[in-house]
Amino acid sequence: MERLLVTTALEASWSDTEPMLFLGEWCRLYSRSDRWSDLDAPVAPYHWDDWQKYSGDCGFLASLHEELLAELSECLNEHHEVDHSLRYWRILLGPWLGWFTQTLFDRWESIHQAVRGEELSGTVILTGLTDDRVPNDMDDFLYLRLGQGWNHHQYARVLVGCTDLPHVFQPVDEVSDPISSGPVPELERVGSNSDWRVKAIEVYSRLAERFTRPTDFFVTNAGLRSLRDELILQRRLGQVPRLIQGVRPVITTVDDRCRRWRLGDGDRTDFQGYVRNRIPEQIPTVYLEGYKALCNQVAGLRWPSRPKAIFTSAAHFYDDAFKLWCAERTEGGAPLVVGQHGGHVGTAWSFNHDHQVAIADRFLSWGWSDPNDPKVVPVGVLKAPALPETGRRSKDRALLVLSSTDLQSYEIMSTFRSGQFLEYLDDQFAFVEALSSTVRDALTVRLSVHECGWENERRWRDRTPEINLDDGRIPIMDLVAETRLCIATTNTTTYLESFFLDIPTVIFWNTSRWEVLDSAVPYFDELARVGIFHDSPKSAASHVSEIWSDVGTWWSSDPVVRAVSGFSERYCRDSGDVLDAVKSSLVALTSEL
């Protein structure tokens, strides 16, 4: 039976009269289940459910990234009449190029797998979508790639240009559709919390910049516990502390005359040819039409002109003004130091980590080292967590900390991807349902504050209305302060912080989705031997129920203490004074160069 292919949750492209095939789980928004639950519309298999394929594709995309970066650097040097190094362009636009290429590949493969393997009658392509446009900068790209409209356009480009599937164009202004793009991601920008804080920072920054010396260390988004720690670090470095505010690039319109170029062999009919054609069309204007304007913006900043070193743990991904300034300074000889921002790094692999190690002169880890990469310097947990000082609290709660992911994949890393999130969610439900009634009554489920379109709170309230939910908005340490046992469910930051604080912890995840590095396997094996790490929700629930009445005795037993201590020393080390460790690393680097 032939089916109409539906690529997104935009219901204007659906049919009420013929069978459909949803390209992925992202088409079926939970709040619209009354619309799709009774339709004859199965979901196509996800191409990255095949681990062997995913592993091979990751290697292919990593290699392709290097090819595209070299070609794009050459093209932009020629276009802008400059002669910048490959590292310069890697710092400035490497994150966008990597994420855009990986996003396009996922959309390309999803379409081609469906066209090859399913009986399809055609598809409806919506025109006039608001998000069908070129992003202005990195922030804008991160916003657009979350939206149904932008993704609908990406699927349409593959369908029309690279397949023979029949299609019908439908102007979007002829229909009423309740679906809109997600909110702009909340990025880590100094001064984003409240108006009074922004004003206070602006006043202080204007005063402090008068005392900035050309050779001061430059510290921004350092990934420390607080802005206060960032100021203390600068003071210890012997300079007047200042807070760096993010600079939004000017909005620049698209000029088609600037985009009449191609990368490499753009005539190929495979993905490599496709992405080489799409990059000139979709590269954010800040790197093309707005590049000179951004250069002028950066030239007007009162930042050190010859910094001893540049230190950040986040700005190198998202802040285009910082990235351009940083690229210029590194070409002038300033070393770039990148700090570990959170978990996953060191225990698992990702494009993000490969990128930051590639651009950095030093990478400050939370404890691990790499014998094959002398850039990595262990300093301990940068944002050392601390429990709130609110007096003694009763430790009578169990805390289950959850994560989320985007509806549609946009990066390669060892984690669940896209619709695989529903498998993860089923594991969480299985864990809760397997707990003893005593633990369930004491359980708080901490949701991710960013639901990413999965509507997690609604799903939990429908499935387990009796469970206490936290929506993720209050500081997690307020919950940890009341926690007898913390349960971590992803290879991210949660269990590293609970280990650091000596909070009894149980970990579980699907090891076929959260693959760890070979170097980390012995450490997780040791955690598994003492009951901390589990690869199934039922095993974890059984252990939690067994130890609940006397968690302290289990956690303080010699085998558990040895396992946690060994793991913590490598992946979440308490250096005593992490600011001093960072200072020493920065000073040592400047003396070496």
Q: Overview of this structure, please?
A:
The chain has helices spanning 33-36, 51-80, 86-117, 138-144, 148-162, 195-208, 227-236, 271-282, 291-299, 315-318, 320-331, 351-359, 421-434, 437-442, 456-463, 476-480, 494-500, 521-529, 537-547, 551-555, 558-571, 578-592; strands spanning 3-6, 20-22, 120-127, 167-171, 218-219, 310-312, 336-339, 362-365, 376-378, 397-401, 443-446, 468-470, 483-488, 505-508, 533-534. The protein is an alpha/beta fold and 593 residues long. It has a 6-stranded parallel sheet, with helices on both faces.
Descriptive key words:
593 residues, alpha/beta, six-stranded parallel β-sheet, 15 strands
Summarize the structure.
Helices cover 42% and strands 10% of the residues.
Largest sheet: 6 strands, parallel
Biggest sheet strand line-up? 12-11-10-13-14-15
SS-derived structural category: alpha/beta
Task: Please bin the fraction of helical residues.
Answer: 40-55%
Q: What gap, in angstroms, lies between the N and C termini? A: 68 Å
- Give the overall shape, derived from the CA principal axes: globular
Record field, number of beta strands:
15
If helices are DSSP runs of H or I spanning 4 or more residues, what is the number of helices?
22
Q: How many whole angstroms does the radius of gyration measure?
A: 25 Å
Mean of residue pLDDT? 93
Question: What is the percentage of strand-forming residues?
Answer: 5-15%
List low-confidence stretches.
174-193
